[in-house]
Amino acid sequence: MKTNFSGSLRTPGRPTVEVLMDLATRFYVMGESQIEIARSSGLDPSTVSRYLKRAREDGIVEIHIRRPHNLDDILARELATAFELKRAIVVEESMDGDTYGGVARAAAEYLDGQLANGTRLGLSWGRMLSAVVRSMSSSRLAKLDISLLHGGVGSAGAGIQGHELARYLVSLHPGSTVRYLHAPILVDSPDIRDAMMRDGSIRAALDAVSDVELALVGIGTLDQSAPLVRYGHISRSDTDRLHAAGATGDMATRFFTRTGEPVHVLDDRLLAVEWDQLEGIPVVVAVATGHKKSDAILGALRSGCIDVLVTDEGTAHEVLHARGEPPHDSDAGERKPRPHHGR
Asked: Is 284 found in the same domain as 231?
């Protein structure tokens, strides 16, 4: 953004409000340096610096310093060691009761630091991921290549569907592209799924997941409050079938047991990332919080698909405690080996 300055705007010490707003926007929002602004505007750097100071003094720019979330590094290392993770991020309980928001912001901060121009990002959906994505920062990064990990059109709650989150990410990172998956998560029969998989756009969207290098997923449960159940993506009878097969949770609509074993009872009707694709993504970042999810998080960690977990300290303690409980039937306490990535 460049401004064609008039003669009166060049008068030292007497910038107009419009000039102060323009310079402040370019410096604080667009991330341009004072030297870049000076070169393009015809002002000298000292004048730009003085005008930015004037913008603060006049109240055009207000700077708020937010106390960062506190992290429990010791508990994070324990969690990462126990499940052979590349990293765990554990947010301490918040004094203001906003631990959920703190986890979302911590995940957003981590992702902001991982993204680069051209990153191939896989994206799931849900309430927590919506909070994460909407906590991310805008930047001058461009050309993210975003792939949706599963379908989701239907009656899901507003603001949590994958295509909505993808559009928001594009607004933060101009020039990015999205490989939309215009399909439901689950269809009524294998024949319908086979027919949809013959559609070129659906097939291409799912095939593109194999090229993803960084994925963001939530960890879901199968209780009545879970979006998959609450919004009717899976029926009561299908939920009963999943429970009967030992399913305790899902990632990107791939279901697993408490031991981390895949549950395949709905696979022939799902339009979602395949298990081997999910396992083959170099870095899978999972975000989940809440004591109701401890068994689901434990199963997800044992599946071998997760590389980075972001959670809160209460949930982390529960997961570590559950890991040490006596086995449930064939329950094993160890994480499955992560596949070797050749990319």
From this structure: yes
